[in-house]
């Protein structure tokens, strides 16, 4: 497979003048040579104090990369949970099915990071003038460079009194998964899942695999519609119903009702119906953890996260890039040249790893040696016996073709086009093709795909509207969010690397 490489159109730097042979030792001592000055800067960047706020996958991988690349200064890891970084994807799959304990999801260490850990204490504020992070316990932590990897949290039920009922859950943390597993193991009469994005659909799948009765309420016209569009969402709807899910689309939950003991007993829907339930799982999307940055002057908010450049450096509120604050993982959004320089906020495991490594590299490198974060979005989900994977940004697509398989078979590859080029692909049990479509996306291949015979078919597949909902209407489950364009000057050219 060919991979994309980048060529940056940097202005040429003037050649350094070398000291002449007649330069005396006295003259040499009067000032430091450019080489010596650069060496001093390099030493300073590999020393000093780096603070990572967010004891997450991105935070851990960044810390490991810092040490691997020679950072010898002090390293502090701050996390609001009492645990060292753990893996989140198993929480909605193996943990809910009882195949893995929530406490056994700790991330493997690739190397010792020799860090000070401050766990169970949330960051509460940032003073950029004094370069200090303020903690909820009143302490402050000084830094020379700061990396923010605070990720997201689950959006809770909007009525606090109802959200506090025994039986109402969200699923984001290790503790959330442990509590929900215990409740499901007790055999509730019916589970209500509010929201049919990827997270909600995975919870519904796990519940059905446990033999529990499940109702899914989705405001949109189909499951996964916000992430993959209505054409693919219709297949996801058939899949859920064929596995016994009571799927109700186009409706919302208006209220959760409890008994006198504070236990969840009933849910009321917008169509006037009510259902008796013992457990409700709210899967209404994520909120980026940026509130602690209020008043810091950074371009950050709970909906879109922290704006940063392709090198992971955070922007301030005036659009000026900082040089000592970086962001990575779910909380970050950055421009991507393959997608019209849109700022992408990615809730992907692979993105968190790749972006963290780029951020760490750039934190300890001089400007000319810094690298852009150009990871191609990839996502996967396992639900109702089907592996769903995607590459690229489906939500940017304005057309769609089924290039392999058929929708009726629930085994296919859907290819998304945008302004006449391939922009994304999604597969149901067809992941073997995604490497090919990754190349198509990287090389801006024309859309519709230019092949006449696919799966023995002699007719070229015809593009259709992917049927994404109005972006102003609330739906659940997009894993890539488009958040606006970067400045208009485009300085990156993709060049395929020859094998």
From TrEMBL:
Segments forming domain Reductase C-terminal: 379-450
Region (Disordered): 1-39, 456-499
Gene3D superfamilies: 3.30.390.30, FAD/NAD(P)-binding domain (3.50.50.60)
Cofactor requirements of the protein: FAD
Lineage: Bacteria, Bacillati, Actinomycetota, Actinomycetes, Kitasatosporales
Compositional bias (Basic residues): 1-16
Biased composition (Basic and acidic residues): 488-499
SUPFAM superfamilies, sorted: FAD/NAD(P)-binding domain, FAD/NAD-linked reductases, dimerisation (C-terminal) domain
Matching Pfam families: Pyr_redox_2, Reductase_C
InterPro entries: FAD-oxidoreductase/Apoptosis (IPR050446), FAD/NAD-bd_sf (IPR036188), FAD/NAD-binding_dom (IPR023753), FAD/NAD-linked_Rdtase_dimer_sf (IPR016156), Reductase_C (IPR028202)
Compositionally biased intervals (Low complexity): 17-26
Keyword entries, A-Z: FAD, Flavoprotein, Oxidoreductase
Name of the featured protein: FAD-dependent oxidoreductase
Domain annotation FAD/NAD(P)-binding: ranges: 49-356
């Amino acid at each position: 497979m060919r991979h994309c490489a980048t060529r940056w159109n940097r202005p040429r730097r003037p050649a350094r003048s070398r000291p002449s042979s007649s330069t005396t030792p006295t003259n040499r001592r009067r000032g430091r040579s450019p080489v010596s000055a650069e060496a001093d800067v390099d030493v300073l960047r590999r020393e000093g104090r780096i603070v990572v706020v967010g004891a997450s996958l991105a935070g851990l991988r960044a810390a490991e990369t810092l040490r691997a690349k020679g950072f010898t200064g002090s390293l502090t890891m701050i996390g609001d949970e009492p645990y060292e970084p753990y893996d989140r994807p198993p929480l909605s799959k193996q943990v809910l099915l009882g195949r893995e304990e929530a406490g056994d999801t700790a991330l493997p260490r690739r190397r010792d990071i020799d860090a000070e850990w401050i766990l169970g204490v949330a960051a509460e504020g940032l003073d950029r003038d004094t370069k200090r992070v303020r903690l909820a316990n009143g302490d402050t932590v000084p830094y020379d460079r700061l990396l923010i990897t605070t990720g997201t949290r689950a959006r809770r039920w909007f009525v606090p009194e109802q959200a506090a009922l025994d039986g109402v859950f969200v699923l984001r943390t290790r503790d959330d998964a442990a509590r929900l597993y215990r409740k499901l193991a007790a055999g509730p009469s019916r589970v209500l899942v509010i929201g049919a994005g990827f997270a909600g659909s995975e919870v519904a799948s796990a519940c059905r695999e446990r033999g529990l009765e499940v109702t899914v309420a989705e405001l949109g016209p189909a499951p996964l519609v916000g992430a993959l569009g209505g054409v693919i969402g219709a297949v996801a709807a058939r899949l859920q119903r064929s596995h016994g899910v009571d799927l109700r689309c186009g409706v919302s939950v208006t209220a959760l009702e409890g008994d006198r003991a504070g236990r969840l007993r009933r849910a009321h829907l917008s169509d006037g119906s009510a259902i008796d339930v013992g457990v409700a799982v709210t899967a209404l999307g994520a909120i980026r953890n940026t509130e602690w940055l209020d008043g810091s002057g950074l371009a950050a908010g709970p909906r879109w996260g922290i704006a940063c450049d392709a090198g992971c450096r955070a922007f301030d509120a005036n659009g000026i890039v900082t040089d000592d604050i970086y962001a990575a993982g779910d909380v970050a959004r950055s421009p991507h040249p393959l997608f019209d320089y849109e700022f992408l906020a990615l809730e992907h495991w692979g993105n968190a790893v790749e972006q963290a490594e780029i951020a760490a590299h750039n934190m300890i490198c001089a400007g000319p040696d810094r690298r852009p974060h150009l990871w191609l979005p990839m996502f996967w989900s396992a639900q109702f016996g089907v592996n769903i994977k995607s590459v690229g940004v489906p939500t940017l697509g304005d057309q769609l073709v089924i290039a392999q398989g058929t929708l009726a078979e629930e085994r296919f590859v859907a290819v998304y086009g945008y302004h006449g080029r391939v922009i994304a692909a999604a597969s149901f049990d067809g992941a073997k093709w995604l490497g090919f479509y990754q190349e198509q996306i990287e090389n801006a291949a024309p859309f519709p795909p230019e092949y006449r015979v696919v799966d023995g078919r002699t007719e070229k597949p015809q593009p259709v509207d992917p049927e994404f909902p109005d972006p102003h209407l609330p739906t659940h489950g997009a894993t890539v969010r488009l958040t606006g364009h970067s400045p208009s000057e485009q300085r990156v050219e993709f060049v395929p690397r020859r094998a």
